[in-house]
């Protein structure tokens, strides 16, 4: 019995260490991932290029999020390119059909055949592409609309003269069943800006 408990504890420590190291690696990749250009299959695209030029040089995105204009706010979109575990997952952000920034959501990944995440796994900084890939579609999705919020990522051309950042906001809710706490994610321009824990879920276990 003692040997079995020791092995279980050792496995638990290794799993915790692996999760910690994976989280650190993701954070380092995400914070260092901003770029001015992206090397596509048919040429390099750069900030300032039109969406048509980007589409002509790059393959089809793995996922696209878009939202309409609401003057004075322009229409927007984010194209996600997942080039595998050894390369950064690129997020190409567009405003009014023009590429305004090239960001990263850590390293790419193999998309699971069946989305299934732990209730506490998703966190601020994740892109909606990563969230959808690992956790599946939300149980509810509420569009808040265009807002001016305090800056989060200086230098990405989304700032108003008052120093505020214009974003398109949504709220996604996930119900993980009565044995777990539900989660609500604030989505700004295709990335999680805030994660909130709610009460216990009401439905059965998630099936994606």
Overall description:
With 208 residues, the chain is of the alpha+beta class. It has one domain. It is built from 3 helices and 10 strands; from the N terminus they run αββαββββαββββ. It has helices spanning 2-31, 51-57, 128-135; strands at residues 37-40, 43-46, 63-67, 76-81, 88-95, 98-107, 140-149, 165-174, 181-188, 191-200. It has a 4-stranded antiparallel sheet with strand order 3-4-5-6. Strands 7-8-9-10 form a 4-stranded antiparallel sheet, with no helix packed on it. Strands 1-2 form a two-stranded antiparallel sheet. It is globular. The chain starts with a helix and ends in an 8-residue tail after the last strand. The model is unreliable at 18-32 (pLDDT under 50).
Protein topology:
Elements: H1 2-31, E1 37-40, E2 43-46, H2 51-57, E3 63-67, E4 76-81, E5 88-95, E6 98-107, H3 128-135, E7 140-149, E8 165-174, E9 181-188, E10 191-200
Antiparallel strand pairs: 1-2, 3-4, 4-5, 5-6, 7-8, 8-9, 9-10
Offer a few descriptive terms.
208 residues; four-stranded antiparallel β-sheet; 3 helices; 10 strands
Helicity level, as a percent range? 10-25%
Percent of residues in beta strands? 35-45%
Q: Helices and strands: which structural class? A: alpha+beta
How many discrete domains?
1
Count of DSSP helices?
3
Strand order in space, largest sheet: 3-4-5-6
List the helices and strands in order.
HEEHEEEEHEEEE
Shape, please? globular
In total, the number of strands is: 10
N/C terminus separation: 38 Å
Low-confidence stretches: 18-32
What's the pLDDT, averaged over the residues? 83
Outline the biggest β-sheet.
Answer: 4 strands, antiparallel
| Cα-atom radius of gyration | 19 Å
